[in-house]
Every structure is written in C-alpha cells, then in structure tokens.
Design goal:
0% strand
Length: 226
C-alpha cells in the first residue's frame, strides 16, 4: 500500500507539473506582459503607483509582486512544511484556495482594467506558488525511492519544461484564432483563459497523500545525507 501511494504521488506530480506550467504560461506569459504594457499607456482604472504613462515601469513593478510575495513566505512556509510532515498533503490542498482566488481576481481585473485588483491577484499568486511548490516538492521527494531519484527528477524537469513551452504556444494560437491583432479584448481573452486553467491545473493536488514517515521519507533523508 505504501509503494502504491508513493507511485500515485509521483504520477500526480508529473501531471501537476505539466498542467501548472501550461496554465502559468498562458495566464502570465508574453500576452500578460503586453496587456500590462497596454494598461501602462493610460488604460488602467484606479491608482497604479507607477509613474504616469510609464508603461515599462508598470510592467516591471507588476511582474515583481508575485516573486516578492514568494520570497517573503519562503522561510515560514519552509518551516511549516518541515515541522508538519504528516500534514503536507493537506497544506497542498489548502494552497489551491489561493489559486482559485487568484483566478477570480485576475478575471475581474481584466474585465475592468482595475490594476489594484491585479496587484492583489499577484500577491495571492505568490502565496499559492510558494505553498504549493514547497508542499508538492516535499511530498514528491518523500515518494521517490532511494536509487531511483535521478531518472524520476529528470522526468519531472522535462515535463515542467514542456508545459512551460506549450503555454505561450497555446496563447499564441488563441490570439491567432481571435484575429492576431493584439487588441485589448484579444489579450484579455487569452489571460482570462489562462486564469480559468489555473484552478483546473490544481486537480492533481487533491490526489496527493502523505507517505509514511518511516518509509520513503526516511529513505529520502538517508539518500540526501549520503
């Protein structure tokens, strides 16, 4: 039963890596940057806290928000995941709340061009990214048996790269279907589509389970120390 549970975690991690990278590439890829550039030209509603009509400033400032949120949370989340090894699957499921909230706020922000909502969405995105990454990576590492890590981790990295590459490709296809003129409604449609994909990409998170502490987790610790 323990081995089957660990295999399931590995399969779910593979699926999650592909879907999450795909959704991220569509929602927060080049089209999102171009949409921010459009907002920075004076189309934004409400305060932006960026120099007026400074398009590049708005793009740079907005893009840094989720990264800063992840950076601030890195230490406390890491301590939380390490302190409660038998609650990692529960924490991973809990992180999906932030993905749903991010999607909802991003969709509303795109429909209204209200930048402060977009800022709030990116803060939540940073929280989701840090919490989901820390918990899923810990569960994945504890589920890979000693002596098999190299191949499994390489497969995970390849799948993540494939998903990340397909995201912008999918957004480009969406723009092509909409006329390929990079009009505001076209950019918004792509970003909204990616936002809808984000909660869908979280489905594998609900199938992770905590491995027994005395099983794969201890083997992983011994492997790392060696």
């Amino acid at each position: 039963a323990s081995a089957a549970l660990c295999r399931q975690n590995v399969r779910m991690m593979f699926a999650y890596q592909v879907l999450n990278a795909l959704a991220w590439g569509v929602a927060m890829g080049p089209v999102f940057d171009r949409y921010l550039y459009y907002l920075g030209g004076g189309a934004a509603i409400g305060p932006t806290f960026a120099p007026r009509r400074a398009r590049n400033s708005l793009v740079g400032m907005t893009e840094s928000i989720s990264g800063l949120a992840s950076l601030v949370l890195a230490l406390p989340v890491g301590l939380l995941v390490d302190r409660f090894p038998q609650d990692r699957a529960r924490l991973l499921k809990f992180s999906t709340i932030f993905a749903v909230a991010t999607a909802v706020l991003t969709i509303i922000a795109c429909l209204t061009d209200f930048v402060l909502l977009l800022y709030a969405a990116l803060v939540l995105l940073g929280v989701y990214a840090e919490l989901s990454s820390s918990t899923s990576e810990a569960l994945f590492a504890d589920s890979v048996p000693q002596g098999h890590r190299s191949g499994v981790f390489t497969t995970k990295a390849i799948l993540q790269t494939v998903g990340g590459a397909c995201g912008p490709l999918l957004s480009a296809f969406g723009l092509l279907c909409l006329g390929d003129r990079w009009q505001p409604y076209q950019m918004k449609a792509v970003v909204i589509a990616g936002s809808v994909l984000m909660p869908i990409s979280c489905i594998p998170c609900f199938f992770f389970q905590d491995p027994p502490v005395t099983g794969a987790a201890e083997a992983g610790g011994a492997d790392d120390s060696g």
